[in-house]
Amino acid sequence: MSDLNVKASIEAILFAIGEAVDESKLLAALGTEEKPFPKKEFSDAIKELMADYEAEDRGIKLIELNGKYQLCTKNDYFEILGKIVNMPKKHVLTDVLLETLSIVAYKQPVTRAEIEKIRGVSCSHAVNRLVEYSLICEVGRLDAPGHPILFGTTDDFLRSFGISSMDELPDISPDKIEDFRKQAEEEAGIEVTV
To answer: What three-state secondary structure class fits 173?
Structure first.
């Protein structure tokens, strides 16, 4: 790698691939089997690239998604892109979709039946819509009768909500949980025991 600029090499790979690329694949491309690329040098190059792209005169940014990296357009330029490209319709997340997505995000991997138990209503339409929007996907099957599908969030979920990993989801405080319980009791006219 002595002849090539590390930052430029990472940039070239990410630009050419166009999707999120796993750190291990980038390291493999930068090094060889005999001489692996140093992680510290890679980490420094990524941080410098991110800082370079954060400059106001740049239209793209470098984002991290669960140990993967991707070049993407800054949100400020979405409107301008819409004028030149036939952009797909931006998905609207209704309250039902947001509730279902929240359950998947916090409880994953989760089955459709578990989501319905929490919400108290059928969620087939919401789950299908979230899969269609690529915000959730099948992550496996439960080892139980019927082998129900397990759902989890996707990289598109992270990208859409501007977070780089699930660790960045806000914690739900005990006070908030108590508020939710009271609201549920009032709406349903029943008493919920925890």
So the answer is: coil
